[in-house]
Amino acid sequence: MDSGAIRRVLALGLTVLTASGLIALASPGRAEAADFCSGHKVRTLSFSTGSVGIYKSNGYVCAVTTAAKVGRTAMSVSVQARGSLPVADAGQYTHYAGPVVVHAGHRCVWVRGSVGSASVSSGWILC
């Protein structure tokens, strides 16, 4: 192969990589809770219109509410470490509410989440 052919092959490869990257960025994707929360998943609280993913890492607890159906609706998520006030995120969202992170150490936490009129409440967990 001469140098002109090598340049054409490299240019074609770069064009294909650039196009695939742009397509990936433009595609409507749905983020998973793991994209927002570090640590390992310790629990999923499911309910009729969505679920709450709960993650734990180094004494921190993170939670994200994910809607079962995409569309703008009222959503919320909150985490409360025993002896502390709850930390919450609520609003009109299309995919998810949160993440919400609290330092729980070795204390129990209470997690709540809602999508539309349905909700879930964990009670004291991760004690």
- How are strands sequenced across the largest beta sheet? 1-2-3-6
Residue runs with pLDDT of under 50 for 5 or more positions = 9-31
How much β-strand is present in the residues? over 45%
Secondary-structure-based class equals: alpha+beta
Tally of helical runs = 1
Number of DSSP E strands:
8
Average pLDDT metric: 83
Distance between the termini: 67 Å
Could you say which overall geometry the principal axes of the C-alpha atoms support? globular
Element order: H for helix, E for strand: HEEEEEEEE
Instruction: Output the radius of gyration.
Output: 21 Å
| Secondary structure: helix percent | 10-25%
**CATH topology type of the largest domain:** Immunoglobulin-like
- Report on the biggest sheet: 4 strands, antiparallel
Q: Which CATH class of the largest domain is shown?
A: Mainly Beta
Q: What is the count of structural domains? A: 2
Query: So what's the oligomer here?
Result: single chain
Q: Tell me the CATH architecture of the largest domain.
A: Sandwich
If you had to describe this structure to a student in words, what would you say it looks like?
With 127 residues, the chain is α+β, with helices and mostly antiparallel strands. It has 2 domains: 1-30; 33-125, Immunoglobulin-like, CATH 2.60.40. The protein is built from 1 helix and 8 strands, in the order αββββββββ. It has one helix at residues 3-26, and strands spanning 40-47, 50-57, 60-67, 73-81, 87-93, 96-103, 109-115, 118-125. A hairpin with a 2-residue loop joins strand 7 (109-115) and strand 8. The radius of gyration is 21 Å and the shape is globular. The chain starts with a helix and ends with a strand. The relative contact order is 0.19. Mean pLDDT is 83; it is low at 9-31.
